[in-house]
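Q: Is it fine to ask for two folds in a single conversation?
A: Yes, each is treated on its own. Send the first.
Q: Here.
A: Result:
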Amino acid sequence: MKNNILFIGNFVNDVILIHQKLKLERERSFTDFMSPEVQKELSKNYDTNDNHCSKDVIKAEALGGSVTYGSLAAHYFGDTKSFIVTKFGDDINKEFQQLIQSKQSIDLTFTETIKDIKNTSYFLNYYNNKKNRTLSLMEKGNQISIEACIKCIDSIHPDALLFVPVAGEFDEHLVMKTLEIVNNINQHREKQQQQQHYRPIIAFDVQGFLRSFNGARVTTRPMNVMIEKLINIKMSLNGMENDIITVVKAEYGEAAAIMGDHDPATCAKLLRLNFGFTIVAVTMGGDGLFLSSSITGEIYIPTFKPTQVSDETGCGDTFLTCTILELLNLLKIKKQFNHENNQNNNNKNNNNNNKVDENSFQQQQHHQQIHDILIKLNIKKEELIQCLQVGSSGASFLVEKIGPNGFASREKIMDRVLNGTKQIKQHYLEFNNPINHHGGEDNEHQKIIRQEQVNDNNDNNNSKSSQTSNTIKEFVEQQKLKQKQFKSTTNYK
């Protein structure tokens, strides 16, 4: 059975300007150095066919956006049907037809073309030998309405929902409304006494929620605003966080902008513990990423060595998509295993004159009392780490070619996971904070919970963490006054 996944976000017309001779210190602002007006002139007048001008600036145009890279990554990963909720202008990049419309695995039923409205567009400025990149907004594009999201979820029931805005085309209120629809579906099924609940993976890319715009200048929202947005999302998950896997991906700079000036492992941990997300990945480009979850703690995962590095655009989108798809594959295996287990238990009971299997009954009771979704689903530490390695491996193929062209099948991705070369950056290993499991299965569950409590106490001794968490606590108290139905399930430190 194919995985059905839903991407919510806009396609982007990318205008890429590669400044071959431009070298800037990281502290200097590219936008201050080169105004949007100058960038527009460069995009008009400089072309790769102009031998004189191309010595300084090379121009390229491409179809971009998270929905582009995500849906194509899913197409080449295989055994996946991607649905996209979006609005785009009639000036969308000409690559759209070849790259997206031609793929039977990408369903555009829930998309809408707006005539006489410009499509979302960015200037991507590469400098310092393409090691650094900045964005300038050219066209903001169209707002995405909740109606198309509701229609898709009601009719398709996708296995995963990926919220990937790029230019403020929706905010957390669309996410909250969408999660409300998921909850309504489950309530309806309960009334109909249906045993099968609808529990999609919910995934977010922080970048689209963090971005703010001052004309063409792309900036980040203040910390307190982002914290309030994440609290709103947490509140909408209230009651579902123990049954639904949530995955958050943030670049290190983005995570630090929200959680404060910490190392990447601490940023990942704070995002998870303070907002109740199941899995948090803080990425660091070619340096790798940090995974944070209740069954792993904070683990450094290095990148895999590509054959060459040509273009890093879309790596985060490819990483997130491949990680989600591998998680879905893992959940299918777990579901099949549980089904076969239940059948064996039923046969055993029938062979024993329908006597109740006391051990099986105790296991069911224990399962119901577990509040951690990863433990409830019996996902192992090594299995979860491999899911993120699959994401990292998928991204390592993308960088080998320019534009949305370097995607790989799951078979090739897995081969690199098992046999590829890991690019370990030794200085990140000091931030590892793994949870070590010992003993039997029941003891393992208890140790995980106790370890989380120990980690919480240790964080209280860290002044920076406490300062950040105090800000979060203030927002929580304000939200409690505004919405009495909010019941906090997180120990805000």
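Q: Second one now.
A: Result:
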Amino acid sequence: MDKRKKTTILVRREKKLNKEGEKIMTSPEECEALRTAFSGPHGVEEKSMLEILVKCNPADLTTFRKNSPGIFSDDECYFEKWDSSHMKFLENEFLRFQRAVIQRTMHPWERDALLVRKSLEEKPPLYNLLIELACTRTSEEFLGARKAFQCLYSESVEEFVAVRVEGFQRRLLVALASTYRYEGMRIDEAMIKLECQKLGRAIKIDKKNEIEKDDEVLRILTTRSKHYLKTIHKCYKESYDSNLEEDLDDIQILRDTVNCLCAPPIYFSKILDKAMSVGPTEQEIEALTRVIVTRTDVDMKDIAAEFNRKFGAPLIERIEAAALGNYRDFLVALVKRGMAN
């Protein structure tokens, strides 16, 4: 019986070449994945970079550079050069995860003290950030931040604010930064009705541009307890059939104050949505880290619920769609921790 000799046929796959005769990357999907990994604006995809870049030979990298005009450009030097603006952009994206880790491990007093300084050193200044810190922390928490600020910068928060802000903004922000609110539940129903009427008259009857001169509005917002103000907020809704913050829509600094004092989850959910929407500013992007890191162990469950209610999508899904790599995974893990508490 004849034994037939088995033969093995080796099929050599033809390498894909571009029109100049240069070999292109084995997988166009990998090339696109690498571009996506570099795209930001919420971190970078470290795992994709690692898996793809270690396989690339010099010809692959040349192909990638030539097919990524938003990242590289041909100039008078006759080679594919990193676009300088995108290089700075990418350096910042690599740092997002690092900054988030540092903020998470930092003492809350120190973290808030640094944020206070940042709020007025940014161009333009972030009044809403200073309001957020003064109004969403407990009296003890913000007192700790004020102590840390003095230790770090050898000046008080009040004087730091007072020399950098003028007019009504100075009066409001200094008062918010220096108050130590009562944290209990005691309220005076008669006084609440009276002060609700004062707010209604200032907003509904007097000219809105006169609110900034109304000492009573300033006194109520900067000295009353949060429980007291939430009760006023409810009384205002019942009396005028509109929300207090909605009637202050064209005075953003007062609107932010009311939201931070009376409805922090609403305020923070809007901040998060803006950070993950199309075309956010760098300040808005940084707020994504700040809100998730600082609220994980406070009210993240309430913020996530409000986010889902208002924007029709789970917060975790929005983060997974917007962010990349370790930065994404870190934020998602923090949100899951906060929602489990």
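Q: Anything structural to flag on that second result?
A: Two points. Residues 200 and 240 are 8 Å apart (CA to CA). Confidence is low (pLDDT under 50) at residues 1-15.
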